[in-house]
Amino acid sequence: MIVGKVTGSIVSTRKSEKLIGNKFMIVEPLESMKSHADRLVAIDNIGAGIGEYVLVAQGSAARIGCDMQDAPVDAAIVGIIDDASRLE
User: Mapping DSSP to helix (H, G, I), strand (E, B) and coil, where does residue 52 land?
Assistant: First the structure.
């Protein structure tokens, strides 16, 4: 799981049927948690907003975390951080 900041959203009118009705957000991992990507797209079922710090699950944990085991999901926002003052 990584911690990141929501920097934007993505709209996709054509997508897999299993993704219809879901919101997608652009998340920038904190510097200390970056691996190979500077940003990632995560499905958001909890209502995170731009500028909020979030917890992101990846891989199979993302599908389980958003209760979409059969959907093509690789990253999911699974929590919103209440106080991010010590993170950066």
Answer: coil
Domains, the chain, ordered by start: 2-80 (2.40.50.220)
Whole-angstrom distance, CA of residue 24 vs CA of residue 72: 13
Nearest Cα residue to 17 out of 78, 75, 72: 72
**For each of the chain's 88 residues, which pLDDT tens digit applies?**
899 999 999 998 898 888 888 899 999 999 877 777 789 999 998 999 999 999 999 988 888 877 778 888 889 999 999 988 887 6
Single pTM value for the model: 0.87
